[in-house]
Amino acid sequence: MLDVPVTNHLYNFLNSVFPRLPLLTHLTLQIPENATVLATTTIAEGLTKLVKLEKLRLQSPRQLTLYDFFHRYLAHNPVKIPHVSFEINGVPRVTQGLEEGFRGDSFRWTADLPSSFFRFDWSSLRSLELRGWSGYLPWADSVLEGLRTAITGTGVSSPSLSTIAL
Amino acid sequence: MARSMYLWKIPLSRLSLDLRLAPPTFHPQYRFFTQIDSEKLFDLLALTDLHQLELLSLDSIPTTPARFKIKKLKVLKLSGSCSFREPVFLLLSCC
Questions:
Q1: Closest CA to A48 of A76, A67, A13
Q2: How close, in Å, is residue A135 to chain B by CA atoms?
Q3: What is the mean pLDDT of residues A83-104?
Q4: Which residue in chain B is spatially nearest to A114 when comparing CA positions?
Q5: ipTM above 0.90, yes or no
Q6: Cα separation of A105 and A88, whole Å?
Q7: A interface mutation test: which of B16, B20, B30 has the most A CBs within 10 A?
């Protein structure tokens, strides 16, 4: 288990450590708001060397910094995508993970995320948690349209014939 | 009107939602779940193999469609600020 900050002056040192930890399973990265593109891109690529990584916690004061970082990491095609949690000021906002080939995701809504981020992949979701704002849930259209399409629309597996009221 | 159509199985087995229902004009920018949305959601959930459904932050028991049934549901968790006693009794007596 390793818990480290990503700093603009020591990111190369951190990146040089990753290849020496091939058995690391749990990693927490604190990414400051002022992290440079060079620092985050280097670390995101270096993370792919942690082939045994099971849990990745990304912490930052800003949500978009975390997603930006994670998408950079995914762009380097890691061998195995770990269970990931995005934490803002210590509060988990989004967790995503795979278990037995299916996803278990959890989302806590905040206004600073683009709505395009919240596309739920119903064809692989086994468990989904959605937390809104003061109990009000903001994903009405993406949940309803996505679920309807997954059940009645695009092919996922062998369909079964049913009668439904329309 | 009822008609036959093909349905695809989705792997969803657990769904946990905040479901405090908002009035339609609740927020100018975001589409929060309303009563109508929740009824549409229940219609769709009835077509799934959901095992566990958790509805949180309820300030009222949402209206369900007539003869609403999720066939494989084993666990139903309801929580929120509303009084559950009579609505849940009615809900269960309808099953």
A1: A76
A2: 5
A3: 86
A4: B30
A5: no
A6: 17
A7: B30
Q: What DSSP line would sit under A54-107, residue for residue?
A: -EEEEEES-HHHHHHHHHHHHHT--SSPPEEEEEETTEEEEEEEEETTEEEEEE
Q: Using one digit for the tens of pLDDT, what is the confidence trace for B1-52?
A: 455 567 888 999 999 999 999 888 878 778 899 999 999 999 999 999 999 9
Q: How many residues does chain B have?
A: 95
How far is the C-alpha of B17 from the C-alpha of A102, rounded, in Å? 19
CB atoms within 10 A of CB A78: 18
The answer to whether residue A153 scores a pLDDT higher than 90 is no
In the chain, the amino acid numbered B93 is S
Tell me whether residues B40 and A158 touch, CB distance under 8 A. no
Distance from CA of A61 to the nearest CA of B (A): 23
- Among A137, A157, A163, the residue with its CB nearest the CB of B18 is A137
Q: Which one of A84-88, A110-114, A160-164 scores highest in mean pLDDT?
A: A84-88
Could you say which of A124, A128, A159 has the minimum Cβ distance to residue B6?
A159
- d(Cα B4, Cα B14) in Å, to the nearest integer? 27
pLDDT of residue A163: 45
